[in-house]
Task: inverse folding
C-alpha cells in the first residue's frame, strides 16, 4: 500500500470531480451563481483576494480542503511554528517565523529559546544601520558612506534585492544601493566602475561563506578597495559580513566584530528577515524594516489560526495544486501591476522552485504526480506587450496571480487609472475570452475569424492591496512562503532542503582546475563536455584586472 497522497481516496475523488468541472467554462460558473464574487473572495491582513475567476466550485474547495486534512496540514503548521525539525533531510527547524516573531513568545530549538539571539542581532542591525545612515560610520578616509554594495547570491541576494527595489520610496536620500551576485566579472566590474572607494560599504552576505560566486566577488571587491585606498586597514571600515559561519568570515580576513550572525535554522530563500536583510535596513532604516517584519508576523498569525476556508496561504496553495495535479498546468505566472515589485517574480522563482522542485517525498519515495510548476512573470503592462499573447490564445493552461496596488508610489495624472483598468481588463478577458459569435460581430469579414477568437477560461487570482508599504510587502512575501509550505505538505515533500543544487557545484569544482591547467586533461566527463572544454581552453583570453 503506497503512502503517496495520489493513492488516497480523496485524490481519486478530486480526479472524478475534475472530469465534471473540466467541460464547464468560467463564464458558466459566473452565470450560475450571482454571488460568486462574494463567495470566492476573502480579506485578511490588508490583502483582498478574489479567487472567483478559478475553475472551481464550493465542492472543489471542500475536496481540496479534505486533501489538506489527509496530508495532516494542521499538524504540520503546529510543528513548523513550534520549531520542530521539519527539514528532515538536514535535521533542522525552519524558523523564519521566529525572525519576525513580534510577539516575542519563546520559540525553542533543541530546548533553547532562540528569541534573545534574534533580538540581539536586530539590535546590532539597528545600531549599525543608524550609524551608517546618520553619517557617524565613516570610511577609512573619514568620508560618509554613500554606496552600499551587497555581495551575495541566491537567497543572500534575491530577497534583499527585491525588497530594496520595492521600497525605493523609503530609501535614505544620501545612499545608493547595489547588488552584485553574478560571478561574471562584468557584474561587479560595471558596478565598481561607478563607485568611489572612499564612500563605499560592502556587505558580504553568505550563509555558508563557502559560495564560490560570492567569495570571488568579495575578493575582487577587497582587492579593488585596498588597491585604491592603499592600505589593508581600510577593510575594517568598508566591509561587513552576514553569515552563520564565523570561522570562515575570520579566515576570509574580516573582523568578527563586523559580522552579523544568523543560524542554520534559517533557509537561504527564507533569510531576508534575518541579518541577510542588512542591505535593506541600511537603505530604509530599522523602523521600516520592523514594519516589514510586522507585516510578515501578521500573516504568520493568520496562517496559524484562520480556518482553511478563509486562510490565504491555504487557499492559494490548494488552488495552485488543483491546476498542477488535475489540469496538467505545468507553469504559473506572477504578474504584479505594481512596478515596485519588478523583482518579485525572480524572488518567487527561487522561493518556490528551490523549495518544491523535487521528485521524492520526505521519506525518499518517488512521487507519481507533478510537484512544482515553473514560476515566471514580469510586471503587468510590460508583459501584456510581450507574452500575454500566449496566455490569451496559446495552448497552455497558465494559472496567474495578478497583484494590484490601488495606489502607486508616484501620483502622476492618469497613470494609476491606466494601470488599474489594464489589470482588470486582462483578468476579465482571460476569463471570458471571445466566442466565434461575438468575434463575428466585431469583424467586417470572416476571413481571420479563428485568429480573433479567444477561448478564455484561463484561471486567475487577483490580490489587491492599498499601497506597497513595508508592512504590506512583508505580508505578501510571507503569504507566498506559507503557500509553498502548504503545497510541500500536500505533496509530501520537504520544502526546506535543496540537494538539487549540489551536483552542478561538484562538477564545477573538477572543471575549474581542468580549465585553468595548461596540461592535457586527465579528468573525463562526457564527449561533449570534454570537447567544449578543449575548445574553450584553445580560445581563452588572458585575465584583466580592474584599472
Ligand atoms: O546554490 C543554492 C544556494 O545554496 C541557495 O539555497 C542559497 O540561497 C545560495 O546558494 C547562497 O548560499 P550562501 O548564502 O551560503 O552563499
Result:
Amino acid at each position: 500500500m503506497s503512502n503517496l497522497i495520489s493513492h488516497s481516496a480523496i485524490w481519486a475523488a478530486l480526479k472524478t470531480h475534475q472530469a465534471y468541472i473540466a467541460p464547464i467554462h468560467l463564464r458558466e460558473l459566473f452565470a450560475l451563481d450571482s454571488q460568486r464574487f462574494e463567495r470566492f473572495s476573502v480579506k485578511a491582513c490588508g490583502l483582498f483576494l478574489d479567487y472567483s475567476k478559478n475553475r472551481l466550485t464550493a465542492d472543489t474547495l471542500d475536496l481540496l480542503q479534505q486533501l489538506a486534512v489527509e496530508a495532516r496540514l494542521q499538524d504540520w503548521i503546529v510543528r513548523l511554528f513550534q520549531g520542530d525539525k521539519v527539514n528532515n533531510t538536514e535535521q533542522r527547524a525552519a524558523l523564519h517565523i521566529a525572525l519576525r516573531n513580534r510577539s516575542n513568545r519563546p520559540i525553542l530549538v533543541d530546548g533553547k529559546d532562540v528569541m534573545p539571539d534574534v533580538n540581539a542581532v536586530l539590535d546590532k542591525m539597528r545600531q549599525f544601520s543608524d550609524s551608517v545612515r546618520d553619517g557617524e560610520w565613516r570610511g577609512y578616509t573619514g568620508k560618509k558612506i554613500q554606496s552600499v554594495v551587497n555581495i551575495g547570491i541566491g537567497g543572500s541576494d534575491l530577497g534583499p534585492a527585491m525588497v530594496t527595489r520595492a521600497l525605493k520610496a523609503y530609501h535614505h536620500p544620501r545612499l545608493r544601493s547595489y547588488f552584485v551576485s553574478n560571478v561574471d566579472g562584468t557584474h561587479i566590474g560595471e558596478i565598481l566602475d561607478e563607485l568611489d572607494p572612499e564612500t563605499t560599504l560592502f556587505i558580504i552576505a553568505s550563509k555558508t561563506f563557502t559560495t564560490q560566486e560570492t567569495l570571488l566577488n568579495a575578493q575582487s571587491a577587497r582587492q579593488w578597495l585596498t588597491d585604491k585606498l592603499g592600505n589593508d586597514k581600510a577593510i575594517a571600515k568598508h566591509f561587513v559580513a552576514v553569515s552563520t559561519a564565523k570561522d570562515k568570515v575570520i579566515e576570509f580576513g574580516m573582523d568578527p566584530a563586523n559580522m552579523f550572525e544568523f543560524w542554520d535554522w534559517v533557509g537561504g530563500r527564507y533569510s531576508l528577515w534575518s541579518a541577510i536583510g542588512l542591505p535593506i535596513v541600511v537603505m530604509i532604516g530599522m523602523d521600516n524594516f520592523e514594519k516589514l517584519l510586522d507585516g510578515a508576523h501578521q500573516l504568520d498569525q493568520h496562517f496559524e489560526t484562520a480556518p482553511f476556508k478563509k486562510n490565504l496561504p491555504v487557499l492559494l496553495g490548494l488552488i495552485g495544486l488543483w491546476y498542477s495535479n488535475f489540469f496538467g498546468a505545468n507553469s504559473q505566472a506572477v504578474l504584479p501591476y505594481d512596478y515596485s515589485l519588478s523583482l518579485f517574480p525572480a524572488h518567487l522563482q527561487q522561493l518556490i522552485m528551490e523549495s518544491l522542485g523535487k521528485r521524492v517525498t520526505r521519506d525518499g519515495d518517488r512521487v507519481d504526480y507533478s510537484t512544482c510548476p515553473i514560476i515566471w512573470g514580469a510586471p503587468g503592462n510590460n508583459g501584456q506587450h510581450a507574452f500575454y499573447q500566449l496566455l490569451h490564445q496559446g495552448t497552455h493552461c497558465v494559472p496567474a496571480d495578478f497583484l494590484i496596488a490601488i495606489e502607486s508610489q508616484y501620483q502622476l495624472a492618469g497613470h494609476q487609472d491606466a494601470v488599474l483598468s489594464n489589470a482588470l481588463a486582462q483578468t476579465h478577458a482571460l476569463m471570458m475570452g471571445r466566442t466565434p459569435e461575438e468575434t463575428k460581430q466585431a469583424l467586417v469579414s470572416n476571413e481571420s475569424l479563428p485568429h480573433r477568437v479567444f477561448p478564455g477560461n484561463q484561471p486567475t487570482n487577483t490580490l489587491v492591496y492599498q499601497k506597497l508599504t513595508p508592512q504590506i510587502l512583508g505580508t505578501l512575501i510571507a503569504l507566498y512562503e506559507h503557500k509553498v509550505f502548504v503545497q510541500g505538505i500536500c505533496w509530501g515533500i520537504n520544502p526546506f532542503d535543496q540537494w538539487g543544487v549540489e551536483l552542478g557545484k561538484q562538477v564545477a569544482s573538477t572543471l575549474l582546475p581542468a580549465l585553468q591547467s595548461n596540461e592535457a586533461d586527465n579528468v573525463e566527463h562526457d564527449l561533449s563536455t570534454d570537447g567544449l572544454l578543449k575548445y574553450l581552453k584553445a580560445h581563452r583570453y588572458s585575465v584583466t584586472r580592474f584599472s
